[in-house]
Amino acid sequence: MSRPLIACCFLLAHTFALPGCTPPPSSLQAVIDRGELIVLTRLDPTTYYLNDSTPQGFEYELSTLFAESLGVKTRFIIAEQFHELVHLTPNDEADLVAAGLSITPEREKKLHFTPPYHEVSQQLVYHYRTRRPKSVTQLNSPFFEVIANTSHAENLRQLKKNHPNLSWIENHNTQALELISMVNDHLLDYTVVDSNQFQLIRGQFPNLNVAFDIAKPEKIAWAFPLGEDLSLYNEAVKFLNNVKETGVLKQLQNKHFGYSKQLNYVGICTFRQHAQNRLGKLKPFFHLAAETYNFDWTLLAAVAYQESHWDPKATSPTGVRGIMMLTKATAKQMKVSNRLDPAQSIKGGARYLRTRIQKIPERIPDPDRTWMALASYNIGFGHLEDARILTQQQGGNPDRWIDVKKRLPLLTQKEWFEKTKHGYARGNEPVTYVENVRQYIKMLNQLEASSQSKKQDAGHKKSALDRDLPAL
User: Fold this and answer.
1) DSSP single-letter state for residue 365
2) Which fold has domain 265-435?
3) Which architecture, in CATH terms, is 3-117+220-257?
4) What are the distances in angstroms from CA 51 to CA 171, 177, 385, 446?
5) In which residue ranges of the chain is CATH 3.40.190.10 found?
6) CA angle 448-121-76, nearest 5°?
């Protein structure tokens, strides 16, 4: 075809849309026509992970909600190496990167970031038996490693300009959890992790501590390829603005990152010790009660640990007793004849928790409904209702736990509890109660995953040994 004919076809395609010269669809229309949003992400507790083969994670849920707003499904591509996340082009298969990427000047040269929806700090992590460095000037260890092409490496290079003796290794073929495990096993002295990531894995690695932040907090956003076609990008910006305004984003952040920060090294170690020494005998009772009353067994086990540290003979000064620390009245109501019998106590506690959930309005979805039920399990339904009324009066949403938990502590203040139906209550306690239970659930799931992984490794080793056995 001659050049004049090409030019003519180009002009006509824009005016009359001649067949054979139709321009390609926009990035948004391509996703709609495909019926699928393709998301590039990474395996990490903060972004995307599999739990019993079921995808979970903050970025997984947020991306899926975006796809649903477009009327399409999602497909996730897992980056094998971190550098794949920061080199997305219009020619690549993925439509966007949703991987907890922080916005940096270097990355803005390669990617088009949405307005931020989260913020994290980058923290230097060390083993408690390693001498804690108080500043960058004390980072003189040869066993300091970070992932290559991350903002962690970028910030270290900035620090090196003023601290020429600073040195570290950038690893191209690893993941954050591998480096964290190496610090835990004394194979490394230091690594750098994001604050939300350390918060999630803190219970799994109780021997690790944070020394200091290596940089100012950074903004997290989705990333799109650079180019003139902004149709899909603009739709993503609208979506993110909407989930911010409606409170959905805050709910997701609370769901994935809203765990208690009150558990210290001793508390986490004690939990792991009790899980090893006490939980095994109680597991059958938790599983049976969970099946009977339609719960996840880890929820019941977490509540029991918060109540009694899984001590069947636990007794409080106020007379509550047993694994689930039931009062005499509650035990009688739940048909528990012996509160010190673990099976009866766990079954009674599960039944009582089910009654609490049934009192929470059905319109409230989980997990908010469960968290409010737990709060009422701790403080009583009447005081929970008082807090929900205060929440509504102050412009919050009484059906969201993140709003209600801000008002529960007001029940300790005279200017507020005098206006309520049920009066004074120790409103801080149910907040701590629920947050701790959530943390215990997380740690139980981590222990279960670790146990399953060890069993699989043992099975692989046994199979390998079987294959190597000589024929008899």
Assistant:
1) P
2) Lysozyme (1.10.530)
3) 3-Layer(aba) Sandwich (3.40)
4) 27, 16, 34, 10
5) 3-117+220-257, 122-216
6) 55
| Catalytic residue, candidates 154, 307, 385, 435 | 307
User: CA-CA distance, 302 to 296, in Å (whole number)?
Assistant: 10
Contacts of 25 (CB under 8 A, 6+ apart): 33
pLDDT band at 25 (very low <50, low <70, confident <90, very high): confident
Contact, 391 vs 402, CB < 8 A? no
Q: Is 307 a catalytic residue?
A: yes
In 3D, which of 323, 368, 369 has the Cα closest to residue 348? 323
Find out whether 384 and 433 touch, Cβ atoms under 8 Å: no
Q: When comparing pLDDT for 201 and 185, which is higher? A: 185
Query: To which residue do tokens 């986490």 refer?
Result: 268
**Would you state the structure tokens that stand for residue 284, as one six-digit string?**
């059958």
In order, the DSSP letters of 289-303 are HHHHHT--HHHHHHH
- Residue 52 binned pLDDT confidence (cut-offs 50, 70, 90): low
Mean pLDDT: which of 85-94, 201-210, 259-268, 295-304 is highest? 295-304
**85 neighbors 221 (Cβ within 8 angstroms):** no
DSSP string, 65-93: HHHHHHT-EEEEEE-SSGGGGG---TTSS
Q: How far apart are CA 311 and CA 308, in angstroms?
A: 5
Q: Token pair for residue 87?
A: 């080199």
Amino acid present at 129 = R
Contacts of 304 (CB under 8 A, 6+ apart): 282, 286, 310, 323, 324, 346, 349
- First vs last Cα of the chain: how many Å apart? 75
Q: Calculate the CA 218 to chain-centre distance.
A: 18
Please list the residue range(s) of the chain that carry CATH number 1.10.530.10. 265-435
181: Cβ–Cβ under 8 A, 6 or more apart, which residues?
A: 205
Convert the pLDDT of each residue in 232-264 to its tens digit: 999 999 999 999 998 889 888 888 887 656 667
Residue 75 C-alpha from the chain's centroid: 20
Q: What would be the CATH architecture of the domain defined by 122-216? A: 3-Layer(aba) Sandwich (3.40)
Element (H, E) at 56: strand 54-56
